[in-house]
Amino acid sequence: MVQAIAFYAFAFVTIAAGVMVVSSRNPVHSVLYLILAFFNAAGLFVLIGAEFIAMILVVVYVGAVAVLFLFVVMMLDINFVELRQGFMQYLPIGALLGLILLVELFFVIGIWSFLEDGSMLTAVIPVQNITNTHALGNVLYTKYVYLFQAAGLILLIAMIGAIVLTLRSRPGARKQKIADQLSRRSEDILDVVKVKEGEGV
Amino acid sequence: MEFSEFLDTYLVPTAITVAQIFAIIVPLLVAVAYLTYFERKVIASMQLRKGPNVVGPFGLLQPLADGAKLFIKETILPSGANKILFAMAPMLTFILSLIAWAVIPFDAGMVLADINVGILYLFAISSLGVYGVIMAGWASNSKYAFLGALRSAAQMVSYEVSIGFVIITVLLCVGSLNLSAIVEAQKTIWFAIPLLPMFIIFFVSALAETNRAPFDLPEGESELVAGYFVEYSSMTFALFFLGEYANMILMSGMTAVLFLGGWLPPMDIAPFNWIPGPIWFFIKISLVLFCFLWVRATFPRYRYDQLMRLGWKVFLPLSLAWVVITAGVLVAFDIVPTPLSG
Fold it and tell me: Which of A118, A182, B131, B133 is least surrounded by CB atoms within 10 angstroms?
């Protein structure tokens, strides 16, 4: 009973927050609702016993990605009227995408419930008595290690691309070079002068 | 369902949990109050002053006087502020600093929620702390507060990365994400000794993560007045203050659990193991907290670009290299810890 109540509470808040992400007028509020949605999705993961995924969801999406979203959105000088103008124009595309996703969901659920051996397609919960962190590690770094490496490479290339796009050298700018500062010797820069009284340097 | 059955399955466990929560939170809040006193006394002694010494014997009632003063002040809502977020930000900061304590083990089996992914939970909660700061900065509708919030966001995200790598290094040596298991794995030797560089990186990153000196740029009073909480007054300010100090204690607790053997005595011999575990844990937390204050009294504030350089160009490569080295050593000498079942 408690599980059911918790499930419906998390699910309801997730969906409500998702609706508010799209419909709220202020983009900062949108991002904050997005965070709420992530958080409740993490709650749902905990309910099905996937505590590792739940924590990673919070660490990665809420703790890092959404912070950067919020960072950017807060700094943008957004014209709210202009933002609304394209709404009707993009509505059909958005509706189409939503429809496709809905149909796909129906296919997945339909296969699960109608096919006789459809249950083979659902995730098999490992029977051995290990935590799901170990279970994930066992699968990820053995069976799917090449895909894992490929995903890492793609992210690396994306990162290099972002750096290349934004890197610009400013010739006039003064920069602190720590290595130069550390390699300075007192003999190179200091002259100790014995000054005679009353004469000056 | 019978009423007695309902009582046994739901009401009694809930009541016990609530009692345990109070048993953690009340001492924590007292500790926060006296941490401010401790801080003022320690810094005063380092600067050859006396510190608070008027209210009560040795100034011991000073924190209570400060609390009462904050309580009777007026709560001001700036007219241009986003009212709901403005009020939510200090609450969020305070709540986040409290809920993290749910997984901290005070002694063998003495923990509110002994979850499998305890350390990840702590990491997640500490990475959420930035939201209170950002929301406060944005909702105040003030330049100083906003700049403080931006600084804080960039800083906390940067140092989280190296904290993550440090945690991974410790996990490699433990083979479990459970905090009690992490402490138990340090029975032979505390991780502060074999992983000394990681210990130092973790401590410095903890300073940056809690916005403490020398990384207190989000509230750098010389350029930003008070940073993100410049518009806050009275109890809303007090909640930020309490949250920040509770976070300091939490980070010290994390340091103690990850590197200083949590509740374990330094050696399992006669005079040491007479002292119960929670006392050892308390001593270790106090020691780390003293270092927090010591650093504040000793070092000048970093420049912002130096702070970013330290995080991304020094700590990140160093901690990443240590992850690889630790994993390599564990595999090469065939001492990879076996996963605990359950």
Answer: A182
**How far, rounded to the nearest angstrom, does the alpha carbon of residue A113 sit from its chain's CA centroid?**
33
A64-119 tens-digit pLDDT: 888 888 888 887 766 666 666 777 778 888 889 999 999 998 888 777 776 665 55
A149 has pLDDT over 90: yes
Question: Quick check: B128 contacting A, CB < 8 Å?
Answer: yes
Q: How many domains does chain A have?
A: 3
- The DSSP code for A92 is H
Q: Is the domain of A106 the same as that of A135?
A: no
Cβ contacts (< 8 Å) between B117 and chain A: which residues? 51-52, 55, 131, 133
How far off is chain A from B182, nearest CA to CA, in Å? 15
Which of A28, A52, A63 shows the shortest C-beta gap to B127?
Answer: A63
Contacts of A132 in chain B (CB under 8 A): 116
pLDDT in tens, B148-191: 888 888 888 888 888 999 999 998 888 888 888 888 888 888 88
Sort B110 into a burial class: Cβ within 10 Å, 0-12 / 13-18 / 19+. middle
Helices then strands, counting H and E runs in chain A, come out as 10, 0
pLDDT for residue B342 is more than 50: no
Residues A92 and A116 in one domain: yes
Inter-chain residue contact B121 with A56, CB threshold 8 Å: no
Helix runs in B100-229, H state only: 118-139, 143-174, 179-184, 196-209, 221-224
Provide the residue range defining the domain that includes A2.
Answer: 1-78
> Looking at the domain assignment, is residue A197 inside a domain?
no
* Same-domain pairing of A71 and A107: no
- Start-end of H helices in B47-142: 62-71, 83-99, 118-139
